[in-house]
Specification:
Strand 1 and strand 2 form a beta hairpin. This protein has a two-stranded antiparallel ribbon with strand order 1-2. The relative contact order is 0.06. The chain is mostly helical. The protein has two domains: 97 residues, Multidrug-efflux Transporter Regulator, Chain: A, Domain 2, CATH 1.10.1660.10; 144 residues, no CATH class. Helices cover 67% and strands 2% of the residues. The chain contains 13 helices and two strands, in the order H-H-H-H-H-H-H-H-H-H-H-H-H-E-E.
C-alpha cells in the first residue's frame, strides 16, 4: 500500500495534484488507515498516470472523467476525436504565429503580400512616403471588402504605375506637398493628370480608369481616408472635377461645365 506522497512520486505528479484530482472526483479517495493516513493500491498509480496523461494533452478534466469510465472502443474513439481537435488547434496556432510574425513587417499586418509588394514598389520608385501611406490606408478597407479581386487590381495598378507619365504625376505630387505655391503646382498637376486619364480612357475605354467595382459608400470611406492622410488630394479632386473627372478611389467622367452630371 502506498502513501499519497509515494503515489504522487510514482505517477510523476505533485501531492497537490493528487488532492486536486480527488476534489474533482477523478481519483477516488481511499479509506484512511488506523493512523489516519490514506493508503493507495497499485491501481491508483495506473489511474493517476492516465489522468495525468490526458490532462497533460489538454483534455478538459470533465472529459477526462468521461474517458476514465469508457470501454476500450469508446476510449479509442474519444482519443481519436481529441487528437483531431489538437491537430486543429495546432493549425490555428500556426496561423496565429504567422500573423504575429507579420507584425515585424509593417504593412504586412493587415495587407496581403501582393499589396505590400506594390507599396514597396512605390517606395523604390521614389514616391513620397505620405502618398504611399495614403495608398495603404485606402487598400485596407478595400482588401477587407473584396479580397478575391486584389490580384486583379494590383496587376492593373502595376501596369499603370509602369507608365512614366503616371509615375511622374506621383513624383510631382510628392514635391508639391511642402511647397508654399502648392495650389499653383496642383493646378499644373491636375492639368497633367486629367490629360493622362482622358488619353487612357479614349485609348482603352472608361472601364480602364474606373475598374474598382465597389459600393459608393465604401468609395467615400476610402476617399476620406486618402484625404485625411493627404490633404492636398481634396483640392486636387476639385481641380479634376473642373477638368471632366471626379473621384479619387473611383474615377468617373463628369460635366466640366459644373453640372456634376455623371457620364
Amino acid at each position: 500500500m502506498l502513501t499519497i506522497s509515494e503515489l504522487a512520486s510514482y505517477a510523476g505528479v505533485t501531492v497537490r495534484a493528487v488532492r486536486h484530482y480527488h476534489a474533482k472526483g477523478l481519483l477516488p479517495e481511499p479509506e484512511r488507515d488506523r493512523s489516519g493516513y490514506r493508503r493507495y493500491g497499485g491501481d491508483a498509480v495506473v489511474d493517476l498516470i492516465r489522468i495525468r496523461t490526458l490532462a497533460g494533452a489538454g483534455v478538459p478534466l470533465a472529459r477526462v472523467r468521461e474517458l476514465l469510465r469508457a470501454d476500450e472502443e469508446e476510449f479509442a474513439a474519444a482519443v481519436a476525436d481529441i487528437d483531431e481537435r489538437l491537430r486543429a488547434e495546432i493549425r490555428r496556432r500556426r496561423r496565429h504565429r504567422k500573423e504575429i510574425a507579420r507584425l515585424t513587417v509593417g504593412d504586412g499586418l493587415v495587407l496581403p503580400p501582393e499589396v505590400v509588394g506594390y507599396l514597396d514598389l512605390l517606395r523604390s520608385l521614389g514616391v513620397d512616403e505620405r502618398i504611399v501611406r495614403a495608398e495603404r490606408e485606402g487598400w485596407i478597407p478595400l482588401v477587407a471588402h473584396s479580397p478575391r479581386r486584389v490580384p486583379d487590381w494590383i496587376a492593373r495598378k502595376r501596369e499603370q504605375i509602369a507608365d512614366p507619365r503616371l509615375l511622374g504625376f506621383y513624383l510631382s505630387l510628392g514635391r508639391a506637398l511642402d511647397r508654399d505655391d502648392e495650389d499653383r503646382r496642383l493646378v499644373a498637376l491636375a492639368d497633367d493628370l486629367a490629360a493622362h486619364i482622358t488619353r487612357m480612357a479614349d485609348e482603352r475605354g472608361d472601364d480602364y480608369v474606373d475598374d474598382v467595382d465597389i459600393e459608393p459608400s465604401l468609395a467615400r470611406l476610402m476617399d476620406a481616408l486618402a484625404f485625411d492622410a493627404l490633404p492636398p488630394a481634396r483640392r486636387l479632386i476639385e481641380l479634376l472635377r473642373e477638368r471632366g473627372w471626379d473621384g479619387w478611389t473611383k474615377l468617373e467622367r463628369v460635366d466640366p461645365a459644373g453640372s456634376g452630371a455623371r457620364h
